[in-house]
Structures are given as structure tokens and as C-alpha cells.
Amino acid sequence: MSATTDTTSESTSRSRPKPTTEGPDAEPAPERPPLVVGEDGLARCSWSASDPEYRRYHDEEWGRSQHDPRALYEKLCLEGFQAGLSWITILRRRPAFREVFLGFEPERVAAMTETDVQRLLLDARIIRHRGKIEATISNARAVLALDVPLEDLMWSFAPERRAEQRPRRWGEIPAVTPESTALSKELRRRGFRFVGPTTMYALMQATGMVDDHFDGCFRA
Predict the structure, then answer these.
(1) Angle in degrees, 0-180, between the axes of helices 87-100 and 52-60, rounded to the nearest 10
(2) Do residues 25 and 19 lie in contact, with contact meaning Cβ atoms separated by under 8 Å?
(3) Which residues are paired to 36 by β-bridges?
(4) Catalytic residue numbers?
(5) Which of 4, 25, 125, 170 has the fewest other C-beta atoms within 10 Å?
(6) Are the CB atoms for 55 and 47 separated by under 8 Å?
């Protein structure tokens, strides 16, 4: 993906359609089973069966409570980079993202300049989208400008856990919720970019603010 051909905009990310392939944010398909049993005999959410990295991500990360502010900033930025793409595209590039964005340490990323942006636009290992690169830098500055810890701000929008209402079908998992919309609005008010309601719901799923493992999944 080149800087000249990628035309995804920030406004698109705020209302982007869910990807139609695989992944934790895949588009619901009536004929698609919610669970799949692996060779190890464990039942997992079926989106994790298509790729070994998805399986590892499902088993070890997705839906686990995350409160580390650096990790939350990283998740926020990577979810923004995902807009219009599949999550596996981001997972496979995550080591490179972490390298070029200095471990997603907000203090270090906030100091990056236009020279860094130009360098990253030439780095084929990541998603070469100027708006998303610049948003990662400006979001770091927004994190440093907060008057409350990032984890406290983000988790204040987490809905009450309702384990007994775990989803059983793809159609029961929303793309947007009132809480993700409210979180998106507050983050934008505080200067964050690429934080639309759909992107923020994916963030909530990824960081355990909501737990959308299907009923019967061993991680549920």
C-alpha cells in the first residue's frame, strides 16, 4: 500500500463497514458457525481458525482485561490503522509498527516530527497512510495532555459485565454500542483521531472492556 494510492480518510474510519473476511470483527454470516473445535480438542470462536496468528491472538490476548496505559495507547493506534483493513494485516505488521513507533511509548512518539512521517511513508513494513501515521503522533500528544490517566478514562466507558448474556450467534455481536459511541466522542473532544465508534468497539473487545467470546468458547 503506497502513500499515493491509499485514500482511506479519518471520516471513513468513523463509520467503516466491518471486514467481510475473517477476524474478530468479521461481518456476521448466517451460515457461519460461531465455534470451531481445534486439533487440541478446544472449542474456539470460529474467526480464530483461519490463521495460526489469529489463534494465538484469540487464546492469549483478545478479550483479556488490559489496563497498561502504554498497551492501551498501542491498541488505540493499531485499531485506527486497521480501519478499512483486516485485523490479520495489522497483527502481521505489529512487530514493525512497534519498532518504527518506538515501542508505542507516548513520550517518545510525541516527539516525532515531519521528518519521521516522511521516513515512515517509505517503510513498506507498515501501513503507509499519512493520516494514520500523523494520528499516531498526535494521539501520543493527546495522551500526554490528559488530566486523567488514559486507562481510567477509557475504562470509565466500559459497560457492566453480563457473563450470562454471552453471544451465541454472529448476529448478536454489535458493531457499535452506546458506550463505544460515547468513548469515541470523548476521545475526539480531547484531540484523538481515528477513534470512531466502530473502531472503539473493536478496541473494547480487544482490551476486555467487553467480552465477546462466544458461549462455549474455552476462553469464555
Answers:
(1) 80
(2) yes
(3) 44
(4) 57, 79, 87
(5) 4
(6) no
